[in-house]
Amino acid sequence: MVDVLHLIGGVLVVAGTLLTLLGGVGVMRFPDVYTRIHAASLTDTGGATLVLIGLGLISGLTLETLKLGFVWVFVMLTTPAAANALANAAFSAGHTPRIGTFQITKSADASQAKPETPRTASGDGKSGAP
Amino acid sequence: MLLAAGVAGLVLAMALMIWRAIVGPSQYDRMLAANSFGTKIVLLIAIIGYLFGRPAFLDIAIVYALINFVTTIALMKFFRYRTLAHRLGPEAKDG
Questions:
Q1: Domain total for chain B?
Q2: Which helix (H) or strand (E) holds B92?
Q3: CB-based contact (8 Å) between B80 and chain A?
Q4: Residue B14 falls within a domain, yes or no?
């Protein structure tokens, strides 16, 4: 029984490691800052979950399982928050995401958005335009 | 045996992160690589603790997970304001 649990735990650890390695390949291959953040954060949380579940199966029901739970909680709290703050910092610093073959620029976005808002506001108003 | 394979895979993923931190085009790529490297180090410390029969390494893993987050936030604050003494939150009265 213990050997079976150790085997399942080892397999889970290797699976989480492979997921983390896949995230590393994604960070190496993806073309943009935002796609790299996406790959790294998702695979880090998933890989950490698998690895810590596997180590918990190996350790059994002891104090180390509680510590593994603490590590899992801290990783799940901090990794998405860091990824969100990193993407926010990159976007507020002027990095433009690459979508397809064209790029969204801030000036084009502003010129698109500026005439839209007064038109909808005047359209919704009861009185006509002066 | 499986834990050793896990350590090998994590070391390979950390090598990829170091590659991205070296050749990253922008500073945000480098910050992302540092943050992800820290998360992988947490997992590596936990696995090595079980591999060497010393599960007390998990305390170090907990501390490293917290320090990693603080490091990332401090790096982003420094590269945005070029100083660590900038006051965040509502704007200060003295500017």
A1: 1
A2: none
A3: yes
A4: yes
Question: Are A27 and B46 a contacting pair at CB < 8 A?
Answer: no
A95 and chain B in contact, CB less than 8 A = yes
Q: Which of B9, B28, B80 sits opposite A17 (nearest CB)?
A: B9
Q: Measured between CB atoms, which of B6, B55, B58 is closest to A13?
A: B6
* Segments forming the whole domain that contains residue B40: 2-81
Q: Which residue has the tokens 């510590």?
A: A67
**Residue numbers in B near A58 (CB within 8 A):** 50
Q: What is the pLDDT of residue A118?
A: 40
List Cα–Cα distances, B84 to A90, B27, B35, in angstroms: 18, 17, 19
B34 occurs within a structural domain: yes
- Tens digit of pLDDT per residue, chain B (95 long)? 889 999 999 999 999 999 999 997 888 999 999 999 999 999 999 999 999 988 889 999 999 999 999 999 998 888 888 888 877 677 655 54
What is the residue type of B65? Answer: A
Residue A4 pLDDT more than 50? Answer: yes
Q: What is the pTM of this model?
A: 0.79
Return the H-helix or E-strand segment holding A104.
none
Pairing mode, if any, of strands A98-99 and A102-103? antiparallel
Lowest model confidence (mean pLDDT) among A74-83, A102-111, B80-89: A102-111
| A39 touching B (Cβ < 8 Å) | no
